Amino acid sequence: xxxxxxxxxxKAVPFLLNILAIILVLAGPAxxxxxxxxxxxxxxAGAKIDRNIFGQFAEHLGHGIYEGIWVGPDSxxxxxxxxxxxVVAALxxxxxxxxxxxxxxxxxxxxxxxxxxxxxxxxVTLNPNWGGVIEPNSFGTHEFMDFLDQIGSEAYVSVNIGxxxxxxxxxxxxxxxxxxxxxxxxxxxxxxxxxxxxxxxLGLGNExxxxxxxxxxxxxxxxxxxxxxxxxxxxxxxxxxxxxxxVAVGPGGDGPRWTEWTEAIMKAYQQHTWSWDINGLSLHNxxxxxxxxxxxxxGFSDDEYVQILKSTLEMDGLLKKHSAIMDKYDPDKxxxxxxxxxxxxxxxxxxxxxxxxxxxxxxxxxxxAALNLNIFARHADRVRGANIAQMINVxxxxxxxxxxxxxxTPTYYVFKMYVPFQDATFVPVTFDAGTYxxxxxxxxxxxxxxxxxxxxxxxxxxxxxxPHQLVEIVVNLAGSIAKAAAGQTITAPKVDSVNTxxxxxxxxxxxxxxxxxxxxxxxxxxxxxxxxxxxx
Length: 536
Ligand code: AHR
Hints:
The chain is an alpha/beta fold. The protein has helices spanning 2-7, 13-32, 85-93, 141-151, 166-177, 183-190, 217-230, 236-240, 256-270, 302-312, 314-329, 363-378, 410-417, and strands at 36-41, 55-57, 79-80, 83-84, 98-101, 125-127, 133-135, 154-159, 199-204, 245-248, 280-287, 336-344, 383-389, 399-402, 405-408, 425-427, 429-431, 435-438, 441-444, 446-452, 458-464, 471-478, 485-490, 510-512, 514-517, 520-525, 529-535. It contains 13 helices and 27 strands.
């Protein structure tokens, strides 16, 4: 004892402990274990990852539309015909395939006539679902279609089954899509658009089991069949090419109520006659650990990080369950499962209007988005559409605005990094990266997908869920003569790091170095990161 105390000077202990800590941090990955092996057999191809799984959702809710998209033609904020230019440029860059509009719960109280015609003559109504605020109806059908045109996207229009009529919805579709000189088509021309609009998706109601009218499956079916029959697409260009796809209201979560709902709709579909049809069944699933949402969107603990990710991964089980029911009645997978509301739903930010669903968007949300997009890609044979909620200023947004200011969120950057996966062909990746354990929750340490784009280039996405450890990966590329890889990674010092108006680039993708040698790709993944690389 005496001898030992003599060789270590007491004053040197803190210094030595510091050195030891530095060595442990640097050696962390090595101590944490071996390199993680992933295998991709490039010769094996799965289903096409439909670009529509990268769809967006823009509801008349809070500042989602007003201020987020629409500032009006007289605004000092740069705009084209009232639509803000900064937002358009940002959305163009992520190649938004479709935008679902006008809701949400709002859709079942929306009357389209309020939103057409001269701006100063439009009815001013209320938005009782979302804060009871004034709805000026300045953003209506023409403004929505103009916005789609500016960002290069397609329309997913939800019609009002809850408080509207089949006639109202049928007339709206005739107004939008008829080429012949009907009274409604002529009115559209007078209002500025002689050429018929294209409606790619038609939503037959929204959450008709709840805010859309609290209907039973049987009641909904009787209504939905009428809308499916009479709400017609007249756009001749579409009729000769891609049809308008009709999406029925589907389940809203896990449990018997929702499996019964899917059973009822799909059973009816199996017996459908020439007079009605559906091409999609919607599914809504938010990541909320407790309802009402109390978890904070920023300033959260490791406990909440793992709980949220655990909860988001339940999307996979949900899709499996509902796909299995759909397979029973539709083995040819003609009806797509369309996850047209998904994302994280946290407590409203302090001092925000609780009816506006304003939350921050952190690096955790980037990881959450990647995990969900990967789940959709793995279910690509059935999941052929999805719409994150919501595009701007609401819930898990791509973009946040404050008057003239705009900031792009970590989730936005994930959507940007995933652009090459749009319409790419799924290629299976196998790996066993072990688990990250925190308390009694375990998460997969790593998640990954691969796909070949339309030009045949291979893309790989790898998420490191571990908030503390680097991960070294080696990817065996069977059937590929790859020589180089390049890509980007998004991470930040903390899982709750965010971009703000004052510091908009705290969480942005950066180039990652990747080595390809002897048919093997090696990379080091930072803790809590999302990485996308292409291999050539
Ligand atoms: O996205 C917010 C709301 O969540 C939608 O309006 C509704 O469909 C869902 O309950």
